[in-house]
Amino acid sequence: MRLLNGIHHLTFATSDMDRLIAFYGRVFGARVTVDLEEEGLRHAFIEVGPHTVLHPFEVPGPEPPGPLPMFQRGRLDHFALSAASEEAFWELRRRLVAPGR
After folding, report:
1. Are 57 and 14 contacting, i.e. CB atoms less than 8 angstroms apart?
2. Are 17 and 44 in contact (CB under 8 A)?
3. What letter does residue 75 receive in the DSSP assignment?
4. Is pTM, for the whole model, over 0.70?
């Protein structure tokens, strides 16, 4: 018996919520379902797939100082999104490397 369908959401910090929302909207066609401020912290729910939500919190402060080795990047090292198909993968890659992105 399968007990889980996958990951519901991932929570992480960003210093620029507007930039993050714009990036996921432009590249992945993501949809913001919640964007609010509570107790002085802005956070959002960003649907990036039918069963996957990103839950970033905007935390003031500088971005990490350049590339860091794996496992030295904080509590969440990275996450990977699964493309719906090989064709979708190549379209996402095109969007990521397009000029001005």
Report:
1. yes
2. yes
3. S
4. yes
